[in-house]
Amino acid sequence: MHLHHLNIQAFGPFGNSESVDFNDLSGAGLFLLRGDTGAGKTSVLDAVCFALYGTVPGVRPTHRLRSDHAPVDRRTKVTLDFSAAGRRLKITRTPKQSYPSSRAKNGFATAEATVQLHEWAGTLDAGGDWEPVCANHQDTAREIEAVLGLSKEQFCQVVLLPQGDFAKFLRADAKDRAGLLSRLFGTSRFQELQGWLAKRSRAAKEDLEQVATGLLHLSERIDQAAGPILPEDSGARHATRPDAEQPAATLAWAQGLLDRAQEAHTVALAEEDHSDGAYQKAKQDQQAAMDLADRQTQYTDALQQRAALDEQAGGHPRLREQLDHGTRAEPLRIPLDAVERTAHAHQEAQAAETVARTALDAAHTHAGTPQLQLAHDQRHTEIGRLQGLLPQEERLTELDRQLADLKDKEAQAQGVHDDADQWLQTWPATQAEHTALIEALSKAADRIPQLEEQVKDLDATLAAARNRDTLAERLDQAQTLQSQRHAEALAAKKTWLDLRELRLNGMAGELAAELADGTPCTVCGSTVHPSKAPLPAGRPTREAEEEARTAHEEAEAAHADATRSGSDLATQHAEALGAAGTTSIASLETELEAARAAHQAACDQAGRLGTAQQHLATLRTECDTRTQQRQEAKDLLVECRTRHTALAQQQRTIALTLADARGTATTLKDRISELVREAENLSHAIDAAQLLAAAADRHQDAVNAADQAAHQAGFPTRQDAAAALRPTSLLRQWAEELKQWDHDDAIVTNTLNRSGLIEAHAQPPADLLAAADTLRQAEAQLKTTAGAPQQAHKRVTDLTPLVADLTARLADLAPLQARYALTDRLARIACATDTTNTLSMELEAYVLAARLEEIAEAANTRLQAMTSDRYLLVHSDEKEAGRRGRLKAGLGLRVLDTWTGTHRETSTLSGGETFTASLALALGLADVVTQEASGRPLGTLFIDEGFGTLDEQNLQDVMDVLDQLRAGARSVGIVSHVAELGRRIPNQLRVTKQRNGSALRHVVDTDL
Questions:
Q1: DSSP states along 378-406
Q2: I need a surface site. Which of 187, 191, 711, 764 has the fewest CB within 10 A?
Q3: CA dist., res. 516 & res. 640, Å (int)
Q4: Three-state DSSP state, 886
Q5: C-beta separation of 894 from 908 below 8 A
């Protein structure tokens, strides 16, 4: 799509008619929409969108598109001439708006929104004409979307690139990003397909569950009717429980129950007499086996205990000897522990004394304690002397700081003095210039009342002149009507009088016609009328005369009304003529326009008077301030130089004294720190030597005490006593073990000598499990056979019809299972609940993720150039942490920093980097959406703001990419107020703010 011409009238901030020639602007492929904030740069793009789609970007109402600066009688209208899909089209739109109307009650009528679409027939070179295509909103919308291949939202995203929105898109979470992509690519159909599959799956499942529920109820009835058939078959029956997934197994299960029920009926009849005798015999056998087993167990346990006791007795002599030595050594535990403890302390004291002496200088490494004490006292004396000199060192530092401050103050005062002196030299010329300007503006302000009165008089005269001409036309019409009404009244009067005369002439005949024989005459009273006057032919009736008289009266009244109206209009016309004179309306309008222009110019100049006066007062105040600053700076310079000389002399004196005291150290504190460390090292060495002597004495005392205690306890040495030591708990354990062995030995010997146990041990082992199992089987058989024939017959009778019903129902189950398996698998794959869907992404999310990956690839071709190959946008399939939802996976965006090789969140980009990434993302989305929607190339793009965040190098990189966009006859319009872009882009459309609305001006090439 290529834009050619745009005409705007009374639209947005544009009160007048404005025109944009995009052919002229796009000559170099790149042009700039430039203007102050609020001037109306974006309104030009709004006009393009309104012309094509009847609405503006966003959700603003169309009835607010009309300019507040436009006159009430000027209609809002936008016309756009553009080419797309090989066609040249022109569209004209007007929004719904009000306009002045003399017929409306409130003086204003409402015009509905209109649209007209024309197509150029012929060629531009050979001539042609615009031919109408359609003139209603629905047909126009279909034509525009067909020729552009873009919906309104897609157009706003790919042609009018909104940088602020794409910065939000760049940093948005997956939910917000999915909403925009879904609208742009129209992927709601995939969500509808996913919902349709889920609905079909649920319906198939419900049908299958309904049949399966019926089968379950029927199988439960079969299971209930079957009951326990044969004990050995119950496990197999429950192992093949009815399942709708396995109809063959279910049918086999039911048929098997019926077969076994029939077999059970036969078996029950044979086993009914046998079960009671078997039960009694099994019960007696079990009791005998339990008695034999108890005696055999007692004897076996005794034999095992005897063997265990004999095995333990082998180590008892050695154990008794160790117990005796441990008991004698127990009182020596404390003296022996004291020897180990003091030996360890003596070793630690020796190590500490060695470490302490290594910190001393070579002269004191092997010195005795008195020499170390003397050296320690000398260090403390020297420390006291140096601490007394610390204030002098601090004073020297303070003098350095004061001298540096004086130098800074002197430099600052010199700068203030020079700056004030330079400004005061230019003050006389500045004062004269502002004084002359204020005088000129004051004269203009004085003329405002006179010009206001002139405008008021001309406005009143123009209104009177318009009224005069209107009344003149009405007076002519009234005079014509008065003459017409006068003629009509005379004709009606003549008609009435003529009819009256004719009736009077034939009155005798009229009276005679009313006479009858025997009726008295109203004139003479005679009842005989021998000779009646004849009634003339064509004589008018009384009703005709009355109608003529009524018509005459109405005509007279109409004439009187016309006469009064004409008289009133004549009076009003005379008054208006006296007020307006004979000057024409056109001349008065010209004079009024000139007077208003002069008044507006005077008001504009007067409006600047206060600012000029305030500025002059500010300059005079600044003059006084500058004069005072220059004198104060001069005084401060003299003071700083005098004080600097005195402090420098004091600094030299203190420095000599401190240099002698410091020696080789950098500062007095460093020298004092050295002496303190030496004193501390000497003190540590003294303490370590004293501790070592005390530790040696304590260790020797402990050794002597331990040797004496060992001899008294019967041990040759203290080392023998230490070897005999055992834990107290172990000694108690050995004594208890020996005592318990003696007790157990007596009990086992008594048990093994009992005769009854010896006889039981000689017999074979008793089989308790076999006896118990025989008893259980006999008891179960007894219970089963009690009334079993009657139960088995009833079971066969109940199962036969139920199995037949189950067979019929299972035949209807297979088709339902196949349908549900297919629909459920497709639905789970689309809804990301099936393991086959390895990405765990729903259908719509998968489509959107693919689109986002294409957008990132398209964006990176430009982002690399804009960032010198540093940044790349990376599409991520991972789900967002802490979020759940159908569209969360696969819609992540991260930034790869190729300089460090790390992936970063988009929120970590700076303002300029965010703009660059957003611009690349917007251009990439434009390419993908265009290819998806129609595949038609976009000849014109607009980029709205954001360049102010770029430094010079980034701006150059972005401009290089924008230059590449111009390939293939594509033009790019940048909307910005950044001054640097104004210097870089020669072709410009400038938008300026004015009192009567904004205006547009083309600046092309040499006009800069």
A1: HHHHHHHHHHTTHHHHHHHHHHHHHHHHH
A2: 764
A3: 152
A4: coil
A5: no
